[in-house]
Amino acid sequence: MATASAPSRDANPFRLRIGEALTAIKALLRDPEDTAKVFVIVRALSGKSLLRGFNRFAASPTGQTILAENRALIDVLKDRDHLASLPADSLGRRYLEFMKAENISAEGLVGASMSGEYPTEEGLNLYACRLRDMHDLWHVTTGYGRDTMGEVCLLGFTFGQTRNPGLAFIAVVAATKIAREHDRRIFRALWAGFRAGRRAAWLPAADWELLLTRPIDEVRERLRVTRPRVYPELRAALA
Question: Which end of the chain has fewer beta carbons closer than 10 Å to its terminal beta carbon, N or C?
Fold first, then answer.
């Protein structure tokens, strides 16, 4: 079973970098489309959450298979011909339609994530990249959109899954801004997202390559992902 441990203190990517996070969050609030700043904040405040997640992933049967195969999720996500060949009700087709509607690509997150260091340990890097590449799959699976409120709620869901403090920091700061400018119900929606993330199966260890071929309703049932209630009401009210 593959496991990872923290590197020496002199080269420790798991240390908290508060100043770096504060600078990045200010920039992100000025330009919410600057996705690269999200990765800067998450890395600055992650602590050992990534390491703990990797060790849990490496201990799971699916994780062991993925590590042994050195499997990269991005390879299947960027293969649009393959996704287009899947059944209309499959997660893969829904994902492809989502990406086209939003005019985004799987490679886009890869480019944004290049701001700052990624782990150099092979297995840990594979896991970190896999977490990054799952993000838009989680949008489709959970039903949270890419609008600002949807992103905040998905951050809450993801924090419930990964317990990464950086995600909670971004979600709370963004929700506070939305509450001041629009509607305080965003805090209810964020809390609901967090609770949904806690109730769901552990998505980082899911076999997404296989799930892409399955009907999306089956995927949600298998992963115990419930559709949001507060978020759609809030989004409709502010539309």
Answer: C
